[in-house]
Amino acid sequence: MPPQQALESARQKGLDLVEISANATPPVCRIMDFGKYQYQEQKRAREAKKNQKIIEVKEIKFRPKVDEHDYQFKKKHIERFLAEGDKVKATIFFRGRENAHPEIGSQILDRLIKDLAEVAIAETSPRREGNQMHVILGHKASRKQVQKG
Q1: Computed from CA positions of residues 101, 103, 104, 108, in that sequence, does the dihedral angle turn out positive or negative?
Q2: How many CB atoms lie within 10 A of CB 108?
Q3: Phi, psi of 78 (to 5 degrees)
Q4: Helix (H, G, I), strand (E, B) or coil at 78
Q5: Angle between helix 68-83 and helix 102-115 axes, rounded to 10 deg
């Protein structure tokens, strides 16, 4: 129907003429209560926001000379963080002469990735930035859900 006739029809019903698709030929419009439509959209957005989980990136710090007990203790923390749905950034700090042996840090991170292979997936490969080396670990199950969706 012509735009003037549609506008007249909308005014008679006490509603608004809303353009749905401007790129279509001819443009598509709908007669509706625009205030009610906006309210429903805001309500949908609030519901979607309520249902979503904000994923945090937790950081666990290691040193190249980490003891076995400390390593196991921190590994358990990483497993707990991953179970809660967060991502984990495992960082190794190098100081002084430790900077000369980055292979020790990469061995620790590789061991961590291997030990957590059942529950975690390495989202980035271990890389060195300045005096630290880090890897980001994500929960394995959530990765599969993302691929399916």
Answers
A1: positive
A2: 20
A3: -60, -45
A4: helix
A5: 50
| pLDDT tens sequence for the chain (149 residues) | 888 888 888 889 888 888 888 788 888 888 888 888 899 999 999 888 887 777 788 999 999 888 899 999 999 999 999 888 889 999 999 988 888 888 888 899 899 999 988 888 888 888 888 888 999 998 887 544 544 44
Candidates 29, 36, 32; CA nearest to 15 is: 32
Instruction: Please state the separation of Cα 109 from the chain's center in Å.
Output: 23
Q: How far apart are CA 62 and CA 77, in angstroms?
A: 12
Write the CB contacts of 119 (distance below 8 Å, at least 6 apart in sequence): 79, 82, 83, 139, 140
pTM above 0.70, yes or no: no
